[in-house]
Amino acid sequence: MTLGQGDDGPPRSLSARLHWRRGNRKHYSLQQKVLGGLAVTVALVLVGGSLTAYLTFRAYWDSVKRIDVRGDLGAYRPPPDPNALNVLLIGSDTRAGANKKFGRYVTGQRSDTIMILHIAPGAHQVEVLSFPRDSVVPILACSPEPGAAGQTAQPTGYVEQINATFASGGPGCLWKTIEHTTGIHIDDFIELTFTGFEHVIDDIGGVNICLPVAIHDPKSGLNLTAGPHHVRGREALAFWRVRYIGEGSDLQRIRRDQFLMASLLQGIEHSGLIHSPGKIFSVIQDVARHGYITTDSQLSPGRLLTIADGLRRISTKSVQFIEVPTVTYPGNVNWVQWQQPQATSLFTAIAHDTKLPKAGKHKTATNGTPALDVVSPSLINVTVLNGSTVPGAATRTAAALTARGFNVVGHPSDAASLSYTKSVIEYASAADLPAARTLAALVNNVSLTENSSLAPGTIDLILGSSFTALRPSSSTGSNPSPSPTASPSSTQNLAGRYGGITGNVRICSDASVFAGPDGSS
Q1: Of 241, 254, 378, 501, which one's alpha carbon is 20 to 30 angstroms from that of 93?
Q2: pTM of the model
Q3: Using one digit for the tens of pLDDT, what is the confidence trace for 149-158?
């Protein structure tokens, strides 16, 4: 659809949550566009400039590269939250075009930065959730996209780094994989290149950073003394990319990047940028005109203005930066897997972002926090497989599940592999995810994996060698309840629960994110 043919209508699934009035079809005035752009700049440039795309209105919209990812996403997707919006943010390390200065002999593209921007109910709070690039994820089928050859689905147990998912299948494949593994519905994506990042930082006047020690890193190009610095685009990008300092890990790099994002947000809030429409539109023109950003084809100017209207009152203290909790992946010490049940709890809080229910209105877990809505065991069809060498594990567990009201399908048997340590629950699509989570609440040390080859409506429980017995059911009824650590919570204090920071953090309180054998301690 071209501009002027109705693409300024209400964005899908946003009318109720961002106060769109369906009868309002009038064109936006220049003043309204500027106000919308100001609101988005204040709230969203915090992600390293990639969200400047939200400011790209009619004059520059045709300059933005757009990809239709609907063919990859398919029919089975997590349901959208009527009270929230989730945008996938991708930092591409492609060396094509102007990016060849970062290494002309590096081929392909990878997503070294992967985040979900979550706009919470009423747009009074924002969460930025970072995914480590070395996280392992299942290998799903993805069709080719510009710059990506696509990939073929692999059997359960075969994994790849989430960084490779983008390299092989493009943004649509990364989008699909995150939806399938987290249960979070994504509305749009925005991708920014290295050069685009530099230009945005330069265009907004630079950003403040703080180093507890001097850093001289030839790999990233960061060479600064200890203390606070106001840096421009080149040095800000070096700070963003620097990895082989401190612990030398991608996880610690993400935490440093969170301080940079918080500083960006604080600088926007306290600078004169919000009072300079001309400067804002120069940023828009620079990023869009030079092809530094890519978005999905469904991201329309109408949706951008609606989002902007809902973000006017965001303050730095209302922005949280969080990293997915991880543990080392047993198959490769350089990779990580998402820690459970903490990761599932975090994903659920974001996927179903609602305020905490009033006391006495819902069942609660043993610590008084709201219990996750569960599916009745009588509605859950489960096949039990023994993925270990423990004799009779599947038979005993099948009997225990039957006693608790689950519908055990078929005879307990051995899995294709007997080398499972951690138990796995496989489900066919997002439609079966609630049932899978209900069962997971009864199993220690378990992960959830989507397997599209399964028959819809039936989930597989593969028992690992660490499994001993089912957890006790809730005493308040026959339905199982999740453990307190797996219960979803309000998003009000996710940063506190998961070791993140808020947008008003003191940027010189970042010594811990440099600590390690190659850092300050």
Answers
A1: 501
A2: 0.64
A3: 889 999 888 8
